Amino acid sequence: MKRVLSTLLLALLLAGCAEKGIIDKGAYELDTRHQAQAAYPRIKVLVIHYTADDFDSSLATLTDKNVSSHYLIPANPPQPSGKPRIWQLVPEKELAWHAGISFWRGTNRINDTSIGIELENRGWQKSNGEKTFTPFEPAQIAALIPLAKDIIARYNIKPENVVAHSDIAPQRKDDPGPLFPWQMLAQQGIGAWPDPARVTFYLNGKSKYEPVDTAALLDLLMRYGYEVPDNSTAAQQKRVIMVFQMHYRPELWNGIADAETLAIARALLEKYGQG
């Protein structure tokens, strides 16, 4: 007994003598006392998706070899313990293949700097030439809110960097679409939203749907963070305006440059700055 106590006392004494910031790794030591200033967190962006499929098919796709996402939330999460269950498919510290070819606020390869959350949702159906989107279940959004808040807090993600998949890939993607409750989430501290009073100020008495110069609007969207290449076609420019409207003016997302869309872009730039 005395020998055990002596050994424990010696270990405590040695631990007390160990240099602060020196970590014993067994075969080597790490000196962590001099941390570089030119270091930045890898995760800066939170990307919201829909799966465009049912849960079982979505889970199979996201655990296959080609694509992946950090989280998958069922449309109606089961609650075996009284709390909604969310599937984590990739550890946050690891890169998932959810964004694809993408760009946001001056940076491409958004997979490298983001966490992806997939929501089970059928996406859109086309009828009479028009897209009709599937609403999100309240239970799913209720599960998303605490998860998104935790991620944002862990990595200090800025509101303007909580984005739709369509924001970062406007030529390819529509998700999560115009029925996703961005405004409500922004009120919960998740994502960006313009101040209504500033939108009214920039609207300056004009009719909401009064046409405006497309180039002027695209310049604002590019400054806010969207990719608008110089050689964009008219159809590609319309796509950028459309996905912006899906996010910030979901009641009308026709891709046409109008006074309200311009006012929203100005209010966002004023509030969150340029990308």
Automatic annotation (TrEMBL):
Its EC number is 3.5.1.28. GO terms for biological process: cell wall organization; peptidoglycan catabolic process; peptidoglycan turnover. One of its GO terms (molecular function) is N-acetylmuramoyl-L-alanine amidase activity. Residues 1-20 form the signal peptide. It comes from the Bacteria. It is an enzyme of class 3 (hydrolase). Keywords: Cell wall biogenesis/degradation, Hydrolase, Signal. It catalyses: Hydrolyzes the link between N-acetylmuramoyl residues and L-amino acid residues in certain cell-wall glycopeptides. InterPro entries: Amidase/PGRP_sf (IPR036505), Amidase_domain (IPR002502), NAMLAA_amidase_2 (IPR051206), PGBD-like_sf (IPR036365), PGBDSf (IPR036366). One of its GO terms (cellular component) is outer membrane. Gene3D superfamilies: 6.20.370.150, Peptidoglycan recognition protein-like, PGBD-like superfamily/PGBD. It holds the Pfam family Amidase_2. Residues 31-177 form the N-acetylmuramoyl-L-alanine amidase domain. Belongs to the N-acetylmuramoyl-L-alanine amidase 2 family. This is N-acetylmuramoyl-L-alanine amidase.
